[in-house]
Amino acid sequence: MTSTGDSEREQRAELLRSELAAVVVRDERAEGWRKAVETVPRHRFTPGFYLPADKPSPRGFTWWEPVTAELDPQRWLTAAYTNQTLVTQLDGDEPDWHKPEPQDGGSPTSSSTLPSLVLRMWEDADLAEGQDILEIGTGTGYSTALACERYGSDAVTSVEVDDHRVEQAAGALYGLGYTPDLAVADGLYGYWPSAPFDRIVAACSVRTIPRTWIAQMRPGGKILTTLGGWQFGSGRTLLTVHADGTADGPLLPGTVSFMLARPHQAPGTGNPAHWTSLLADAHPATTGHHLDWLTAATEEAFFTRFLVQSALPTSQITTVNGTTLLIDIATGSVAELTPDGDRLRVRQAGPARLWDRAAEVLDAHTAAGHPGPEGFRLTVDAKGQYLQHPTMPAIRIG
Fold it and tell me: Which amino acids are annotated catalytic?
């Protein structure tokens, strides 16, 4: 029997879904998703989540407040239908949403992505009726439900590495009558039991395109994913897979960021004092560059950082006593980057001259007129994976 409170909640949720659809379906390209957004109850996929609190964290990190229907039903339902990302897990630890606790710090490891970005991803994948779709990263299952509502459950396979996430998503999906193929699996291996696919859409970032994805595609199929890395840069690509096992496609415009696939996340860098000690005998040199590409919060700087990151795929950024370090644990190399007026003073040590390679990319990008992502293509063939631009040297990634 449905209680009066439950009935009122569902009526309120229906109204909020209509309002959400008006916000996220804003152009003709996404119009086909309107019914799906108005139909799929996002709150059923987010029984609990964290929101950043306004109050300061005692340790200087983000203070995360849990939000559930039991704690604050109005805030919970309203947030579920706000166009925002809802963090559902921190540091890989599954919360007990029956008695959740605030968290002082922690890195999000699972979330319900903001609905406008979910629609953008599905639209950018160039989906059509009759295609077999593999979603990498089920998460809460909300994006999976939208695809099932639009194209039918039989078209959708979704895999997730976290068994707790799959269990929660499966309960919500099946409870609403959606029956996609779901599996606990490492998405970097695709999902052979349901292959071949016409589309692979990744709700996480990868450092390089997994060869297994290409192997599981029908010729002419497309892969939509975000390329990420350890310098917090990212770029999206839509690859077309060819019969000979190669793939190529453009980088897409705009700035989109997803969490890295867990096996692709950065390893620890160890003791910062070790890296600074390597620089003891290094001679500083003032360069013609500055730190904007690394520190500015602009789309151009973000993409420039992505290009440098692609050329230095095993390097990481860290800060020690206010100084920026590029660290490469694979080669034991380090570069110290310090502002010097409007320029940059650099010291570097180790077999891989990290700054020299970064400067090559920065110089080439400047000489080409600072082209954005839409000027680049990614090619994957037997020789490797390359970012290519008509007036820049190719950048091998991975």
Answer: 110
